[in-house]
């Protein structure tokens, strides 16, 4: 399926959110070819004004009228919003790149990290999904490593910034920090079930009956789909931490055969989008990854508790490569593969 346009007309649904703001900033940085841009959100954002390039653009409530003539929709809103406008885009043959979880596991929706599986875009059916912001850096590291040796098992623990929940969560952490500094030791939580400032929560998304959260199951299922390895043994624990931007992960990987740290390090070093540091003491923290598009891998070492096992530390900016940058890279891949054409 090829789409041919005289210019690329883009709509951003969720333009006033944290990921929407990142999308606009990164689109400007990357000089993404946008002829016209519509900024859309819920009714409460109607009339707000945002800057893009040298223009001031008024935000409007998303509607069929506002989407008329649009070639590409980037959606970063609730699953309910995605499920409303995804079918509309499909019916009207408008390409949607969706940041949410609504369509990720649908058989006819590619779940894409361009460094890994951009060929899956050929089967788009007008919707492409972006992985969870914890999945993306993980699968990049795993894809690099499996070039050396087949992977048999993965376990991961995440340390996720509050920006992954949205702008309200950023404000809650900042306000709680101010309250504590002002002498209130127990500021009231609103976004999270308990205080997030000076605390950690082993609770990201809702719990399922088996004790895993939806976030943890997303990581497992999305990793399998992106890597096309549906039998991969995988388990994770997702933790929210009092950090504004940047998700971190500790990952344990078991391989089918013996593998050297040197060969894995070389594979990581050669992989596009990954910065690998073999020096144990020069790890990258979320604060240092903020504003960057790379996936940073360090502290790679052998796991003496299992056969053919290694551990590593992984960090990325969740709003950029974890969301908006990946979306723009998908859009660029659609252009490169002439699925989207600008004439």
Q: Please, could you describe this protein's structure?
A:
The chain is of the alpha/beta class and 343 residues long. It folds into 2 domains: 3-130 and 323-342, NAD(P)-binding Rossmann-like Domain (Rossmann fold), CATH 3.40.50; 135-161 and 200-318, 2-Layer Sandwich (Dihydrodipicolinate Reductase, domain 2), CATH 3.30.360. Helices cover 31% and strands 25% of the residues. It contains 10 helices and 15 strands. It has helices at residues 18-29, 64-67, 79-91, 114-117, 135-146, 167-181, 214-227, 261-270, 286-289, 320-336; strands at 3-5, 9-13, 36-41, 49-52, 55-61, 72-75, 95-98, 127-129, 151-160, 233-240, 247-255, 274-276, 295-303, 309-316, 340-342. The strands form 3 sheets. The protein has a 7-stranded mixed β-sheet with strand order 4-5-3-2-6-7-8, with helices on both faces. It has a 6-stranded mixed β-sheet with strand order 10-9-11-14-13-12. A two-stranded parallel sheet has the order 1-15. Strand 6 (72-75), helix 3 and strand 7 form a beta-alpha-beta unit. The two termini are 16 Å apart. The model has no long low-confidence stretch (mean pLDDT 95).
User: What distance lies between the first and last C-alpha atoms, to the nearest angstrom?
Assistant: 16 Å
CATH topology of the largest domain: Rossmann fold
H-E string:
EEHEEEHEHEHEHEHHEEHEHEEHE
Assign the CATH architecture of the largest domain. 3-Layer(aba) Sandwich
The share of residues in helices is 25-40%
Structural class: alpha/beta
Whole-number radius of gyration? 20 Å
CATH class of the largest domain: Alpha Beta
- How large a portion of the residues is in β-strands, by DSSP E? 25-35%
Residue stretches low in confidence (pLDDT < 50, at least 5 long) are: none
For the biggest β-sheet, the strand order reads: 4-5-3-2-6-7-8
Total strands: 15
Number of helical elements: 10
Taken from the alpha-carbon principal axes, the silhouette is globular
Q: Whole-number average pLDDT? A: 95
- Please indicate the count of domains: 2
């Amino acid at each position: 399926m090829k789409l041919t346009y005289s210019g690329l007309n883009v709509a951003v649904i969720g333009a006033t959110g944290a990921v929407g703001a990142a999308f606009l900033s990164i689109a400007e940085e990357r000089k993404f070819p946008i002829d016209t841009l519509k900024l859309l959100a819920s009714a409460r954002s109607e009339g707000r004004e945002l800057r893009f390039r040298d223009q001031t653009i008024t935000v409007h409530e998303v509607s069929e009228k506002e989407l008329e003539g649009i070639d590409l929709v980037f959606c970063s809103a609730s699953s309910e919003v995605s499920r409303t406008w995804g079918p509309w885009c499909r019916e009207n043959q408008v390409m949607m790149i969706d940041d949410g979880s609504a369509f990720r596991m649908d058989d006819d929706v590619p779940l894409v990290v361009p460094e890994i599986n951009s060929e899956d875009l050929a089967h788009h059916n007008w919707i492409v999904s972006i992985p969870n912001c914890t999945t993306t850096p993980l699968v990049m590291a795993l894809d690099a490593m499996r070039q050396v040796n087949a992977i048999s098992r993965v376990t991961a623990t995440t340390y996720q910034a509050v920006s992954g929940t949205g702008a309200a969560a950023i404000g809650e952490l900042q306000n709680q920090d101010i309250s504590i500094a002002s002498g209130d030791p127990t500021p009231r939580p609103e976004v999270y079930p308990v205080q997030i400032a000076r605390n950690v929560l082993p609770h990201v998304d809702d719990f399922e009956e088996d004790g895993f959260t939806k976030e943890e199951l997303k990581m497992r299922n999305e990793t399998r789909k992106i890597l096309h390895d549906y039998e991969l043994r995988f388990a994770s624990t997702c933790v929210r931490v009092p950090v504004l931007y940047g998700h971190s992960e500790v990952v344990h990987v078991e391989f089918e055969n013996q593998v050297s740290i040197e060969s894995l390090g070389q594979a990581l070093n050669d992989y596009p989008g990954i910065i690998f540091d073999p020096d144990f003491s020069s790890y990258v923290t979320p604060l240092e990854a903020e504003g960057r598009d790379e996936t940073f891998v360090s502290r790679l070492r052998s796991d003496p508790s299992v056969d053919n096992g290694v551990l590593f530390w992984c960090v990325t900016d969740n709003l950029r490569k974890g969301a908006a940058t990946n979306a723009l890279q998908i859009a660029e891949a659609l252009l490169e593969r002439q699925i989207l054409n600008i004439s």
